[in-house]
Amino acid sequence: MAEAQRTTIDTAEVERFSAMAAEWWNPNGKFRPLHKFNPIRLAYIRDQVAARFGRDPREARPFQGLHFLDIGCGGGLLCEPMARLGAEVVGVDPSENNIEVARLHAAESRVNIDYRATTAEALADAGEKFDVVLNMEVVEHVADVGLFVSRCAEMVKPGGIMFVATINRTLKALGLAIVGAEYVLRWLPRGTHQYGKLVRPDELETALAHAGMAIIDRSGVTYNPLADRWQRSKDMDVNYMVLAEKPAG
Questions:
Q1: Do 90 and 128 meet the contact criterion of CB atoms below 8 Å apart?
Q2: Going by C-beta distance under 8 Å and a sequence separation of 6 or more, which residues neighbour residue 246?
Q3: What is the pLDDT of residues 110-154, one digit of tens each?
């Protein structure tokens, strides 16, 4: 089958998240884990973008002039902070429900974000390019990881970067991220993650390399139950983040 005919969209996954769209901005709702997880993601993105583009993260709007894409943006939990930091943000999600919620919240918050209900392949086909692509907690929900990573990488400008965050496919992740988080603690609705769709770091890095991206940083993310917060770690057995760059040459 030709690549143009293939799709990264898993319809069942889109429908699952569409059904929960109204919950996106409720910090005690079905997306509570993402709200807890957001500070560590935001700090990592802020510091890495500032380092790569020579910006001062202490400034009010250090990302002024940078063009960001948040692919699989959901309700906009990452888009809004990036826009407040000065970035020009495009938020993309295949779910019309998610985009409707994101647009409404951005309007209420008076934040300017270009939200679009579309797909990575449609955006790539249109030839759009970005300094920074945020690909956070998405690859474990798509139909074709290699194709998805490739189409996202097409949209990274030379010298630009892409962040990818996901869950490792290990027994530890099965126990903590699926059985523990979904069935025991009920932090997430049952069925949010399927073990077979989780992505190992070596698989992700191979897909990135095939897409012309060079890995420049890796970090695990672990939960500290005593502090009730997430923190960066060398342990990539469950949650992890990878940063890749498209060579400028």
A1: yes
A2: 153, 156, 157, 158, 159, 160, 161, 162, 212, 213, 214
A3: 999 999 999 999 999 999 999 999 999 999 999 999 999 999 999
